Amino acid sequence: MQITAAVMEKADGALTRRTIKLEEVELEGPREDEVLVRIHSCGVCGTDRGCIHGLEPFPTPGVLGHEGAGIVEEVGSRVTGVRPGDRVMIGFPYCGRCRWCRGGNPRYCEQGKELMFGGFRLDGSTPMKRAGGEPLAGRFFQQSSWATHAIALERQLAKVPDGLDLDQAGPYGCSISTGAGAVLNELRPRPGSSIAIFGAGNVGLAAVMAARLTGATTIIAIDRVPERLALARELGATHTLEHGAATVAELKELTKGALDYSIEATDGSNLVAEAVAALGILGVCAMVGGAKMTASVKVNHPDVLLNGKRIIGVLGGGGHTPDFLVSLMELQRDGRFPLDKLIRFYDFADVNQAIDDSDSGRTVKPVLRMAV
Ligand SMILES: [Zn+2]
Ligand SMILES: [Zn+2]
Known about the structure:
Blueprint: E1 2-8, E2 20-27, E3 34-43, H1 46-52, E4 62-63, E5 68-75, E6 87-90, H2 99-102, H3 112-117, E7 128-130, E8 149-153, E9 157-159, H4 175-187, E10 194-198, H5 202-212, E11 218-223, H6 226-235, E12 239-242, H7 247-254, E13 259-264, H8 272-277, E14 279-287, H9 301-306, E15 310-313, H10 322-333, E16 343-347, H11 351-360, E17 365-369
Parallel strand pairs: 10-11, 10-13, 11-12, 13-14, 14-15, 16-17
Antiparallel strand pairs: 1-2, 1-4, 2-7, 3-5, 3-8, 3-17, 5-6, 6-9
The structure holds zinc ion (2 copies).
């Protein structure tokens, strides 16, 4: 079938303009374990921008977009969990067979990197081609949903609960579950505890909203942008700090040296050293934000050892299955997770504007609406 997709001709490098243009392309029907989804909307995430700016790998020409939500239009012969007409969001891809998938940690699927960034199915094929026949990398996160239609694996779908606007659902697939999962799946703050969140973009603000659902009594958001800090307070932060040279000292003063948890959720600023230094005894730092592939982290050895500090990586909100995404969507529907305050909608044709506004920090969570 013919669809419209936002094709990236090549990764543009850190500072140049984009080469993303809407194009009519051919999409094959679903294979036996796949589903064709008519995309209603799709978020713009830091990982899309990382690929555009050449920081993270993705083959071109190709189609980005990995926070798609829409309506099931057609299912493969072995699909049993969804049917045409179902409202779904497309979560992260995983193989379902490896040791980590079978152990309940599909976020850490041993083929996850290939499934997310390879651009093709694991067998090297793609369902998407240009009108002239040129194959497109049409399997970004096994969905490539900056398009009017996408082919996804059945197992990566989560049904959108009745009562939740479909256009709110896409971001749960990546950025929002990343921030919320770090808090709810991994750190699990104790009642009366303190948590500091570095970076108040869509991931950090999702962590703030999640912390607000726990017994943590001190929730501190740190960012350079005052408007984002104001939003963090609205979403449940008890304190906010404008990031600067004194941030670690300010955190120690605020928590009397007993910060229990920290989350590094910046978009490549790599503040892990500060997030660890600010912790108190037995504090835990979760590394959540993306970074350059060559980035490393330097912390003070005795500080970590003598204080029993822990540093953990948390990919995409931890190892849990799409069921977790459904839980978050139910919380939003019930008025307990106000994601709508982060979102600004853009017409699909304005994809480059949405990317620019995300780069500049003007929009926390751009969501593209596909004209159907
Ligand atoms: Zn796996
Ligand atoms: Zn993402």
